[in-house]
Amino acid sequence: MKNDRLIFVTNDDGYSAKGFAAAIEVAREFGHVLAVAPATPQSGRSQAVTLFEPLYLELRHREEGLEIYSFSGTPTDCVKMAFDHMLGDRRVDLVLSGINHGSNSAVNVLYSGTMGAAIEGSFYGCPSVGLSLTDHDADADFGAARHYAREIVKSVLERGDDCSRPLCLNVNVPDLPLAEIRGVRVCRQCRGVWREEFFRQEHPEGKACYTLTGNYTNFEPEADDTDEWALRNGYVSVVPVQVDMTNYGHLPFLEKILK
Amino acid sequence: MKNDRLIFVTNDDGYSAKGFAAAIEVAREFGHVLAVAPATPQSGRSQAVTLFEPLYLELRHREEGLEIYSFSGTPTDCVKMAFDHMLGDRRVDLVLSGINHGSNSAVNVLYSGTMGAAIEGSFYGCPSVGLSLTDHDADADFGAARHYAREIVKSVLERGDDCSRPLCLNVNVPDLPLAEIRGVRVCRQCRGVWREEFFRQEHPEGKACYTLTGNYTNFEPEADDTDEWALRNGYVSVVPVQVDMTNYGHLPFLEKILK
């Protein structure tokens, strides 16, 4: 059974990121692996696609049961390249995107290249899991994240098929030693926003340049059913993601004001 | 009253796009205008943010009641720059993103730089309208789009405040002469996906390169309450957009399989 499975792995920190290697390591325990990640870091790329530039694909590693490529586009481009060009008729059992260096909880799901790729994977009818560790360090310890990735991937592969539409999960692991993590919480996306500051620097040639920094503002710090609450309280957060952006609650109001 | 209003305008085709000028023209009828658009075309950028590159802001035009800037980031970066750096305490009455050259109906809402900026605008508590014309031509005729933009902006400014949360609208105008458009339809986002083909070319230096092309597959061509149906039948489609990506329907199933 194991050897019949095919897992597609991608990432938004690029093919040389430690978190990409960690995701591949987990995926290999469950089947053959095709891995395609951006050639360069693509954090914050959301579900962007590259429309007007030619893109380059490069084989980086091949061994029995594993192929790793870099692709010069976005994480979403990597998914499209794999499913529309490389896979042919081969069926993928799971898309694994990550393990991201940094949190993708709350509103970050919208900015995240990791989650952009996971959502794109679900467009191909596959269950998909976006995995993130709340530690931006390039040399972060992915031990606990690998442990929970393994548990969640196993559950989705073995029991996820009962679901009407493919599952798409936004999984975040707190930056704690495995022994201190209190388990998995199924959550909803926390409401809140980033308030940015643009750090201004005078360029040597005289033009000012701006670099984005910011702080997250939690609009509902007391609610205990959100991903932010789970992470702050030592749990792994799992939010199921959907792609219908329609605000059904606003439909009747709009009908009224646009007549 | 009119002169107290401030409208923020952005775009994803860049500050020199014809659709950006069309949106500014509409916005000026309702108040003062601050307009910040990317320095270069940013179609398909989704809600991407630029995390690690310094960005440059340039004043392009100033006259009474109007300032136009270019900014070297994404459409979402333009919104953040305006709200977090340029506006200070000034209150914005509406964010207008567009008029995009090309449709942003259905699943395109997720890939669209125009809608990424509109959604970002709603994060600042402003009503926001993303406007698109289903014609990719750089020299497209925005006559009908301007007409409906004016109607919808007027309704949102005058009557949108009754809403519990700020309205965020995905408006698409069919590529038809004004007289042939049958009116406005409030819709939901159509289900469907793009199936891409990567057009492969051999690079002169020997490396193959790939360019993204594709076709949209409508999963529910018969449903008459979707934006795709409205556009195909000569209506302007208006979909209210929300930013909670939680798939609430999947929560109980997940609780079961992750225990």
Summarize the structure.
Chain A is globular, with a radius of gyration of 19 Å.
What does this 3D model show about the protein?
2 copies of one chain form a homodimer. Chain A is of the alpha/beta class. Helix content of chain A is 26%, strand content 29%. Chain A contains 7 helices and 11 strands. Chain A has helices at 18-28, 75-86, 108-111, 113-123, 143-159, 227-232, 251-257, and strands spanning 6-10, 32-38, 57-63, 66-71, 94-101, 128-133, 168-173, 184-186, 192-202, 208-218, 236-240. In chain A, the strands form 2 sheets. In chain A, strands 3-4-2-1-5-6-7-11-8 form a 9-stranded mixed β-sheet, with helices on both faces. In chain A, α5 (143-159) links the parallel β6 and β7. In chain A, α1 (18-28) packs across α5 (143-159). Chain A is globular. The model of chain A has no long low-confidence stretch (mean pLDDT 94). At the A-B interface, α2, α3, α4, α5 and β7 of A face α2, α3, α4, α5 and β7 of B.
Task: Give short descriptive properties of this protein.
homodimer; 259 residues; alpha/beta; two-stranded antiparallel ribbon; 26% helix; 29% strand
